[in-house]
Amino acid sequence: GYAGIHDWLKKKFGKASKCENITCLKIQVKRYEWAKLKQKQYKRKKENFVQLCTHCHKKYDKGSMEIKII
Question: What pTM does this model have?
């Protein structure tokens, strides 16, 4: 489920440490999160997820921001 996949991401690839959205304007960010790409499924594949700062993650989930990945 959701928690299991996020635990797998952290174990396999580490804690999210950057924002991969190239349009991100946040310079000083304290938290980053793994976010599932909307067109992908919850499967244990790294390409289904992206690292985002909390600001970009919230906007992406609400649909008010499209992300461009590095």
Answer: 0.85
